[in-house]
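User: Modeling request: complex.
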Amino acid sequence: MSLRLNRLLLYLPLIVITLFFLLPLYVVVVTSFKSFDEVSLQRMWQLPSGINFDNFRLAWEQLAPHLWNSIKLVVPAALLSSALGSLNGFVLAKWKFPGADIVFPALLFGMFIPYQAVLIPLVQFMRTIDLYGGLPGLILTHVIYGIPITTLTFRNFYAAIPSELIEAARIDGAGMLQTYWNILLPISIPAFVVVLIWQFTAAWNDFLFAVVLTNPSNWPITVALNNMAGSQIIQWNVQMAGAFLAALPTLLVYIFLGRYFLRGMLAGALKG
Amino acid sequence: MASVTYNNIYKSWGEVKVIKDLNLEIRDKEFLVLVGPSGSGKSTALRLLAGLEEITSGELYIGDRLVNDVPPKDRDIAMVFQSYALYPHMSVYDNMAFGLKLRKMPAAEIEEKVKEAAGMLGLETLLDRKPKALSGGQRQRVALGRAIVRHPAVFLMDEPLSNLDAKLRVETRSQISKLHKRLDTTFVYVTHDQTEALTMADRIAVLKDGMLQQVDSPQVLYDSPKNVFVAGFIGSPAMNFFDATVTGSPEEMYIDTGGFRVRVPQSYVNALRGYGGKKVVFGIRPEDIHSARFTPGGVTGETVRGKVDMQEIMGNEIILYMDTSGSSYTARVDPRERAQIGDEVEVAFNMENMHVFDPETEEAIYA
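Assistant: Request completed. Predicted assembly structure:
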């Protein structure tokens, strides 16, 4: 009996908190199905009068090219920063060079630099190297900004792997890159899942770098979504449909890969 | 096939010297065991030979080649690790083949070598399995197999049996000894277990605090340990030591521990002539203290009475923890003794097998 009561006391607040967190999503979803006339403050909590996908069609027309930009941005950015983080993590954890203990904190320091602080020099730098306005410059920025967190994650993951494994490979005749490629990379999948999801989400959700570094034709979806609301009358129903479309990829990634994400985090934290 | 020579080898970690002036010659085809307590530097000595640690100073030779700056893969060695260090994502076959593939050996030849090693170790049916689907003993054999396929000049083993249960450890011990005979190459084997050292080694090198204490065959180490440390480390249960005084005359010389007095046999009198009235460390192994009632034939013991503090019944013998007027010691006696805790019993010290050490240097005083 008391066990049941305990359960209830545990789950009731959890459910309440969950519902609270889901409120904005509820508003987004119901509004995205409403017609323009239905959208008002008085009726914002009410369900739509019917299901129609016109808003989504309209939002899609405006956002589709930018959705494609986002994909062209996020896939290389996540892959490159994960690959670099993995290599960094490997040499910092298992193939230590003189000075590794200085390089690692210096790399981590990058995590604590606020985006806003580097915007102006960043734009100037991108102009100088002729990467301003297009996606390659934005990809480069995300890759570099991702290196600290990806390096940290991989370093911790590799630190938990027994050094004898690396030593066995060395005696077997493997050099640094062969050891990485043949021994460490195949067993790093849990860490890659974590880092890829993390970087995918970070680059997908980014607004600030994208808005200062890209031309309108290269805008990723976050910037384009913001600009849909630019005219005098805001079509909240279309806006919400667009917001839902923009959030869908990261949502799907978490729904389908979330458990691998958690598993990977724990694999690094608890045991190799 | 190769010998190994450590020539004035030092290894330091910053200020800490973990190997101090190691001089050791390991003969071709020898089974040499490096033994010592943890922190003695035995693993470091092996890792220097493997090339996994850099030598601080001195020269290390494999055969007549100076290998100080030769990377591990070019030293013609193979190593078996304590944790086995099998590649978790590779099958047993690939684990064994990995080193050969890196050396660009033709696939047909690799297959032949892996099959041969698998046959030797009884792994033929397991070649497709991943390490996690193997038992501890099987993993251990794969680790051996990975070393065997390479046909190295020197085999290095770092506590390869310490992760096995007691029964398997005894079995694998003899398996490794047989493997040594069959492969006919040099083995360097690290362990903290003196039983492993005694049962497997051609010669044992005892290390303590980074310094080599003694190198010799197991029987010589047991019979004539050079100092108190080796005497206490080799043999189980460990040798009994007493702070004692040499008393009496050369005609009738005694060792007096304060708790009891035993007569020094004639064979030892000359060695102790200069120690009359002085302090020494007197050592005697538990197996040289018999029950006075069941002393084996040919042994004439010096009898001592003592109280039984504790006993361990082993079946074939009883280990008695004795106390004689404040001097405590261990005795391995005949199981028919049937002493009870608190009983007063009479034991006989076989003084022909006594040991005496200088209390200052802790070096043995030989008869």
